[in-house]
DNA sequence: TAGATTGTTAATCGATTAACAATC
DNA sequence: TAGATTGTTAATCGATTAACAATC
C-alpha cells in the first residue's frame, strides 16, 4: 500500500485550518468556499485546495466545503478524534504548567502522570495528576502504556531519559529540552525550542532596525 | 540602501547553528569546516555555506570557519549580542514559568515586569520581577520602554491587549495565545502555538500507524 | 607550492500559484 | 440549465543541492 508522503509544510498548516474551521463552526457558518477561507486566513485559495486534496476531496463543486464535515475530517487526519495519553517527564515549572493546561484535553491529549527526580515533588499532585519517582518510570509504563512523553527536563538529562522512554516503547516525544534527541527512526520527536523562537523574534527586530 | 530579504527558512536555521557552535566552543574546538558541521547537524554543507553567505563571508578557504568568531557573528545577526527588555502580559502558570526561566537572560532577554488583571497576583513577585495591574500598563511603558511583550493570556483578551501594546510603541510580540493577532506591518509577531505543535506530533503518530 | 575549503554560480528539486476542465 | 466552485494539471517561483573556480 503505497502511501503518499505529505510534506511538512502541509502538515504545519493543518492545525490552523482546523482552528479557523472551529471558529466558523462556533459562528454558525455552515459552508465556506476555498476563496472565502483564503481571504480570512491570508493564504491563497489554491493552496487550501491543494492541501486538502492531499487527503481527499472534501468539497463539492459549486457549493464549497461543509464547515462541520471538513472540521471533523481534519481532526481525523490530525489524529485528534481519539484520545492520546501523555506523561510529563520533569515536574518543574514548565511541566506543571503543561499539566495545568486543560486545553490539551479538549483535543484528546490526556496527561496520565508526571515523573520527577526531586523528593519534594514526588507524591505531589497537579490538577489531580500524580508525580512519581523517575525510578518508577519503567514499571509504571509497563502497566500504563502511553503514546506521548513530554520532556521538560534540563538538556543534560534529556538524552538518557529519551533512551529509557524508547526502550519502554514510547512512540512519540514532545521535546522542550534544548537539544536534538537521537532516537530510532520509528520514534516521532516534535521539538519546541522556545529560546530559538525568541531568537527568531530578536532577529526580526534587529533586521527591522537595520533597514532604517 | 537595498537590503536583501532573508527567507524565513534561513532565519529558522540560524539559532540552531548558534547552538551547535556554542557546543563546539564549550568543547574547545577552534575551527570547523562546513563539511564537518554538516555531518554533526545532519544538513548539507552546501546549505550551511549558502545560509552563512547571506550575511557575509565568515570563513576562509582552506581553513574553514573559526568557531568563536562565527558564534559571535551569528549572535550579532540574531540580535542577541545586546540586551532585549521584555514584559510578560499574563501572570498565570505560563507567564510565571517564563519569568522563572533564567536561560533567556543568558541570551540577553531580560524580563522587567509582569502584568495581570487578578488582584491576587498584583503585587506578587516572581524571581524578583514585580506583577503590576493591567491598568498601569500604559503609564509603566511610558517610563520603561521595552522591545518585546510576551502574551500569555487567554485568546479572548489577546487582540485588545495587543492593540494597547502597539499603541504604547511595543515593536515585537511573542504570542502564546492561540489566535492570529492583527498588528501594523512594522510590528513583529512571533507565535508559539503549543497545541498546534502537539497536533503535528499527533498527525505523525497517526500517519505512522496507518502505514502499517 | 599543493591541498583544503570557501564563496558563488548553475542545476535540480519541491512547493506555491495559476488556470481550467469537470461537475455539482 | 447556468453559475459557482471544486479537483487537478500546468506554469512559476523559490529553496536546496551540486559543482567548481577562487583563494587562503
Can you offer a commentary on this structure?
2 copies of one chain form a homodimer. Chain A has about 210 residues and is of the alpha/beta class. The first copy, chain A, folds into 2 domains: about 10-80, Winged helix-like DNA-binding domain superfamily/Winged helix DNA-binding domain (Arc Repressor Mutant, subunit A); about 85-195, Rossmann fold (3-Layer(aba) Sandwich). The first copy, chain A, has 9 helices and 10 strands. In chain A, the strands form 2 sheets. A 7-stranded mixed beta sheet of chain A has the order 6-7-5-4-8-9-10. In chain A, β8, α8 (about 155-165) and β9 (about 170-175) form a beta-alpha-beta unit. The termini of chain A are far apart. The interface between A and B is large, with 57 and 57 residues. The structure holds a DNA duplex (24 and 24 nucleotides).
CATH topology of the largest domain in chain A: Rossmann fold
Q: How much is the average pLDDT of chain A?
A: 96
- Return residue spans of chain A where pLDDT drops below 50 for at least 5 consecutive residues: none
Largest sheet of chain A: 7 strands, mixed
Most residues in contact, chain pair and counts? A-B, 57 and 57 residues
SSE sequence of chain A, one letter per element: HEHHEEHEHHEEEHEHEEH
CATH architecture of the largest domain in chain A: 3-Layer(aba) Sandwich
The fraction of residues in strands of chain A falls at 15-25%
| Assembly context of the chains | homodimer
Helix tally of chain A?
Answer: 9
Q: Tell me, briefly, the overall form of chain A.
A: globular
CATH-assigned homologous superfamily of the largest domain in chain A: NAD(P)-binding Rossmann-like Domain
What topology, given as strand order, has the largest sheet of chain A?
Answer: 6-7-5-4-8-9-10
Amino acid at each position: 500500500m503505497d502511501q503518499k508522503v505529505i510534506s511538512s509544510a502541509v502538515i504545519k498548516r493543518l492545525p490552523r485550518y482546523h482552528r479557523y474551521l472551529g471558529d466558523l463552526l462556533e459562528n454558525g457558518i455552515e459552508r465556506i468556499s476555498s476563496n472565502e477561507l483564503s481571504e480570512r486566513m491570508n493564504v491563497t485559495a489554491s493552496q487550501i485546495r491543494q492541501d486538502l486534496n492531499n487527503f481527499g476531496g472534501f468539497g463539492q463543486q459549486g457549493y464549497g466545503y461543509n464547515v462541520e464535515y471538513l472540521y471533523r475530517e481534519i481532526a481525523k487526519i490530525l489524529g485528534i478524534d481519539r484520545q492520546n495519553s501523555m506523561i510529563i517527564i520533569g515536574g518543574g515549572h514548565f511541566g506543571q504548567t503543561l499539566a495545568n493546561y486543560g486545553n490539551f484535553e479538549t483535543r484528546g491529549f490526556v496527561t496520565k502522570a508526571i515523573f520527577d527526580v526531586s523528593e519534594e515533588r514526588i507524591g505531589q499532585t497537579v490538577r489531580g495528576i500524580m508525580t512519581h519517582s523517575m525510578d518508577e518510570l519503567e514499571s509504571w509504563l509497563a502497566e500504563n502504556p502511553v503514546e506521548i512523553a513530554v520532556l521538560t527536563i534540563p538538556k543534560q538529562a534529556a538524552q538518557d531519559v529519551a533512551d529509557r522512554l524508547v526502550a519502554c516503547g514510547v512512540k512519540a516525544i514532545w521535546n522542550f529540552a534544548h537539544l536534538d534527541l537521537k532516537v530510532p527512526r520509528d520514534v516521532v520527536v516534535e521539538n519546541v525550542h522556545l529560546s530559538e523562537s525568541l531568537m527568531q523574534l530578536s532577529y526580526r527586530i534587529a533586521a527591522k532596525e537595520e533597514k532604517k
